[in-house]
Amino acid sequence: MDLLEIIVLALLQGLTEFLPISSSAHLILPSKLLGWSDQGLAFDVAVHVGTLAAVMLYFRRDIVRLTQGWLTTGFTRNPSADGRLAWYVVIASVPACLAGWLLNHWIEDNLRSVEVIAWTTIGFGILLGFADRRHGTIGITQITLLMVLVIGVAQALALVPGTSRSGITITAALLLGMQRSDAAHFSFLLSIPLILAAGGLKTLELSDSLLPVDWQALLIGAALSAVSAWLCIYYFLAFINRIGMLPFVLYRLILGAVLFLFFVG
What is the 3-state secondary structure of 77-97? Predict the structure, then answer.
């Protein structure tokens, strides 16, 4: 990988990991437009480490508070609000982890195509727009176990390329009546165990590989994805209540149309 490829792919990963616009749809475009080869497993691990570092740094106070609540009251009959929310993050992560473990290779072999990504980019974009019109006033401290289970099952759908993990979890939360900023907040908290699980799996695969590692490329990629991901989270949460989901819906529709026009059929 040359420096331009490292910069573009790292920034794309950092920005699209948390915006509801699908990282897989964007990471496929450079290879199709510019003929770039696959970035490799080691680089995937590096940019996942970068995005994980960004979300954990941004929500460090939440992580400390939820961990303390979980350890002190999470195993009692009456857990605190923080202890209960910590359990909700764990519970909502289970469906996607199980689906990923059982279906990852099948999805890679059968669904990772431009046509599938184009359809899901448009379809789930329309659903996001519909959900945004139905958003309510429920805050993150008011969610119920049933809501968490629905959001968790929805998150498992993000294994299908083009769906967008943040997009589908925010969509589900909005349909259940959550307010925009709290829906995004919960979605970002859910990303932590999922990125940890995905990064851990890729690291295990990498440990079995005998390919040489370009450490400079990995460090640059991790740093750029971390910075871009942190900025993405910051500005998304700052403006989401004002701008809503319409800009992202329109962007998804345009992106899906571009994929159909130039890369499908």
Answer: CCCCHHHHHHHHHHHHHHHHH
d(CA 140, CA 4) in angstroms, rounded, equals 40
Q: What is the pLDDT of residues 102-133, one digit of tens each?
A: 988 898 888 888 899 999 999 999 999 999 99
- Rounded-to-integer distance, Cα 13 and Cα 76, Å: 39
Structure tokens at 38: 């696959």
At 143, give phi and psi (nearest 5°): -70, 155
Using alpha carbons, select from 194, 82, 68 the residue that is nearest to residue 140: 82
What is the 3-state composition of the chain as percent helix, strand, coil, each rounded to the nearest 5?
A: 80, 0, 20
Element of type H or E holding 262: helix 246-263
Name residue 109's amino acid.
Answer: D
Read off the pLDDT of residues 16-62 as tens digits, 9 standing for 90 and up: 989 999 887 787 777 777 777 767 777 888 888 899 999 999 999 99
CA distance 113 to 64: 40
pTM of the model: 0.93
